[in-house]
Design brief:
Length: 191
């Protein structure tokens, strides 16, 4: 990785943390510059506009989801364990009382470019399709139980995890996330 790529990644890392803490509208390039120790012109060099930065954040987050899903898939064939590992992805930012990038960007949807909105929808679609596939496979294998179709269950699970992040963040209490997540997984486990 060259110096130019390293700086772009550092900017993205910093911007992601700021979005997860403050929302997309809650920071400016000056905030990033101050944290990274560069001038705002350097940020504009890599990301000419904040919309470009937002689109790059979502694209990188989507790539990370693909990598995480592949890691989960290769790590176990047990669908309940796959769901536990998925829950862990959503638990990770809660440790620092942040939410996932998608949740925070959704709260600022009105200010995102149409392209960023489409990319965000695609990210959520990937999550939902992956969950639906795992849920249906688990039900067919007899290891998971739930009523209704797998797509509706995937929506419920994703919405509950996102809500659990918000509650844990609001109360600054990761146990609230864990309680909700454990309840979701227990309800799906075949007795």
């Amino acid at each position: 990785m060259n110096k130019k790529t390293n700086m772009a990644e550092t900017i993205l890392d910093t911007a992601q943390t700021l979005v997860q803490e403050c929302g997309f509208n809650g920071f400016s390039y000056a905030h990033i510059a101050g944290k990274v120790g560069i001038r705002t012109a350097s940020i504009h060099y890599h990301f000419p506009s904040k919309e470009d930065l937002g689109e790059a954040l979502i694209a990188r987050y989507t790539e990370n989801f693909h990598a995480a899903a592949a890691w989960i898939e290769t790590g176990t064939t047990d669908d309940l364990e796959r769901l536990r590992k998925f829950v862990e992805l959503y638990r990770e930012p809660v440790r620092d009382y942040r939410t996932c990038l998608g949740v925070m960007l959704s709260t600022d949807l009105a200010v995102l470019s149409a392209k960023a909105q489409d990319k965000l929808n695609h990210l959520f679609d990937l999550n939902l399709l992956w969950l639906e596939r795992v849920l249906e496979h688990g039900r067919q294998a007899g290891t998971l139980r739930f009523d209704g179709n797998a797509g509706a269950q995937a929506h419920k699970l994703l919405a509950a995890l996102q809500g659990a992040q918000l509650l844990a963040r609001s109360f600054r209490d990761i146990k609230r996330f864990d309680t909700i997540a454990e309840g979701l997984i227990s309800a799906l486990a075949k007795a």
